[in-house]
Design goal:
By secondary structure, the protein is an alpha/beta fold. It folds into two domains: about 5-220, Aldolase class I (TIM Barrel), CATH 3.20.20; about 225-385, TIM Barrel. It is about 35% helix and about 25% strand. It contains 14 helices and 20 strands. The chain has an eight-stranded parallel beta barrel with strand order 1-4-5-6-7-8-9-10, surrounded by seven helices. β4, α3 (about 60-70) and β5 (about 75-80) form a beta-alpha-beta unit. α4 (about 85-95) runs parallel beside α5 and α11 (about 230-240) packs parallel to α14 (about 375-385).
């Protein structure tokens, strides 16, 4: 296993941060981009690897790859429309660790030959697919790292839902990278929960005032959930505050019950909170609690995506306290969403103690049952993201 693949297999959601000056679909993004400075900043900000566009249609050159190599020790992915041994040899000589192979432009024989050439040259590959047939080809060709692009390179249309479906059906032993269309932490998390090992982000970073800071934001954890939303104005307050997940309680007997999930921007994930039965009501995720006699819900929950468990929710008993709460959360393997009694005053300390994948607050953010205090929502999200 080479260091490109190894970096992407590290625990958590990896990020390939991209340097590109322009896009054929969006025009100029950052014409004056300095690849050496950006590559170093991306590495310092947690990028698992750095992607460098070397094609002139994206405002790139081979010198950009050489500049990035001079300033960064991170694995470098050379991106272009490569089809010959000479292309791959040039990439290696310019400092690349890996090269992009586009299934859209190459038949199976050509890809197989280029995979062999890359291996002889000591290069790794990212084999890119954008539909079900191309994914099947990538798997059959033995690609170790597969990129699934949400953007159709012929029409430039982005379809993140189709991308997530492909990620979810891909073999888990391959390294899966979700490419294009990721603008928020929640969108990155959606790819992670579908089964992606990493994300490749370019335009979002290049448009940001500080690309490295935007990268840190996208890969940082915990995610922040505001639950018990019952009104559109409260959803808007959670969005404005920077929450990643919006929770809607569909449970009889809860003072925060709503009849259905309210609309939210696609930069957030929606969570349907239910008891006993995993009804979705169109939500991205389901937070399923067990029933408990005499109470609205049981204690802990599971977070489900398409019926499959993707995280554990460690909560307090309904209307009760437990001094061992944080200790219980720390003992859980895998992704943990910490819930119960969290608010602006204590969420920061809770994060330091537990290091959860996500945090969840509801009643502490209210001025009346089911009615959010917008200032407390802002303070909670700010404290959690700090």
């Amino acid at each position: 296993m080479g260091r490109f693949e190894e970096a992407l297999r590290a625990p958590g959601l990896a990020a390939i941060a991209e340097v590109k000056r322009r896009s054929p679909s969006a025009g100029d993004l950052r014409p004056d981009a300095d690849p050496a400075a950006l590559a170093a900043a991306y590495e310092d900000s947690g990028a698992a690897a750095v992607s460098i566009l070397v094609d002139e249609r994206f405002g790139g050159t081979w010198d950009d790859l050489r500049a990035a190599r001079s300033s960064s020790a991170a694995p470098l992915l050379a991106k272009g429309f490569f089809s010959t041994e000479e292309h791959l040899a040039t990439a290696r000589d310019a400092g690349a660790d890996a090269v992009l192979l586009l299934l859209r432009d190459l038949d199976d024989a050509a890809v197989s030959d280029l995979l062999g050439v890359a291996a002889r040259l000591g290069l790794e590959t990212l084999v890119e697919a954008h539909d079900a047939r191309e994914l099947e080809r990538a798997v059959a060709l033995g690609a170790a790292v597969i990129g699934i692009n949400a953007r159709d390179l012929s029409t430039f249309r982005v379809d993140r839902r189709a991308q997530l479906e492909l990620v979810a059906r891909a073999p888990r032993e391959r390294v899966l990278i979700a490419e294009s269309g990721i603008e928020s932490r929640a969108q990155g998390a959606a790819a992670e929960l579908a089964g992606a090992d990493g994300i490749l982000v370019g335009s979002t970073l290049m448009r940001a005032p500080d690309p490295a800071a935007k990268l840190r934001e996208l890969v940082s954890r915990p995610l922040v959930k505001v639950c018990g939303l019952t009104r559109e104005e409260d959803v808007a307050a959670a969005v404005e505050a920077g929450a990643d997940m919006a929770g809607f309680v569909l449970v009889e007997g809860s003072p925060r019950r709503v009849a259905s999930v309210l609309p939210v921007p696609d930069t957030l994930l929606t969570v349907a909170v239910v008891v006993g039965t995993a009804e979705t009501d169109g939500a991205d995720l389901v937070q399923l609690y067990p029933p408990e006699a005499g109470k609205v819900r049981g204690r802990d929950a599971v977070l489900l995506r398409e019926g499959e468990e993707v995280a554990r929710v460690v909560d307090l008993p309904w209307d009760e306290e437990d001094a061992s709460h944080f200790e219980r959360a720390r003992s859980v393997e895998g992704r943990v969403m910490l819930a119960g009694g969290l608010g602006p005053e204590n969420v920061g300390a809770a994060i330091v103690e537990v290091r959860p994948w996500a945090v969840d607050a509801s009643s502490s953010l209210e001025r009346a049952p089911g009615v959010k205090d917008h200032q407390r929502v802002r303070d909670y999200v700010e404290a959690a993201r700090a």
